[in-house]
Design goal:
Radius of gyration: 17 Å
Number of strands: 11
Structural class: alpha+beta
């Protein structure tokens, strides 16, 4: 498996994580870390944030403990902006806005949003009509909770296409992709996007045309958080 390197820095590497590859080793599958270590001929990489196994796209891996500590502080201080693309087949309750709620674990490894003030998740979003019964979402999570984006779209009555855990319609993949990232690393400003490479709806002309308009997601008129 050849991993797409989006950005290579002396202290870290940003990759395009393939869909259905876990970030860490599983009983039946090698995680992403040893694969990238072998590809880049590195002894070790540090995982500084996570993506669900079913999610593709931008993932930062630190090349040393010092860089891992810097990223730990950046994430803790909410100084890293992340942007995601998702596709759903059902129209949401509203076309844009902020989804807030307390994340509560329920059966079968699922989560749900509640009105509780504990473990609060906050996500901003825009929704666009691509084709009949196909909607593209641009998502900006302001918190980093487990399954946050998947639960957020489920709460809008627009579960992500292919996300069977949250009642999304069957598809060849779960249509959630880590698309963009923006942060300052020491004295360097990093702003980049990474288009999805798998999924017929992500690769459709209509979606790629919209992605051209969303090539700098940090410049969208996001509401005040």
């Amino acid at each position: 498996m050849l991993i797409n390197i989006v950005f290579d820095h002396p202290d870290f590497v940003i990759i395009d994580k393939p869909v259905d590859v876990a970030v860490q080793d599983e009983a039946t599958q090698t995680g992403i870390l040893p694969i990238v270590c072998q590809q880049l001929n590195l002894k070790k990489l540090w995982l500084v944030h996570r993506l669900d196994k079913v999610t593709s796209g931008i993932l930062i891996l630190a090349k040393n403990a010092q860089a891992a500590a810097v990223f730990g502080s950046l994430f803790a201080d909410k100084k890293i902006e992340k942007y995601y693309l998702a596709i759903a087949t059902k129209k949401p309750k509203k076309k844009q806005g902020t989804i807030r709620g307390g994340m509560t674990k329920v059966r079968d490894g699922k989560w749900m949003l509640t009105s509780k003030s504990e473990n609060v998740a906050k996500t901003q979003f825009f929704s666009f009509g691509l084709l009949p019964n196909i909607r593209l979402f641009l998502l900006k999570p302001l918190t980093g909770k487990t399954h946050q984006l998947r639960v957020a779209l489920k709460s809008l009555s627009s579960p992500i296409l292919g996300d069977r855990l949250y009642t999304g319609e069957p598809a060849e993949r779960t249509y959630l992709h880590a698309y963009g990232i923006k942060f300052q690393y020491k004295d360097q400003s990093i702003e980049l996007t990474c288009l999805p490479s798998v999924g017929e709806h992500f690769l459709s002309h209509a979606c790629l045309e919209f992605c051209q308009k969303l090539s700098a997601p940090w410049q969208q008129l996001w509401p005040n958080s």
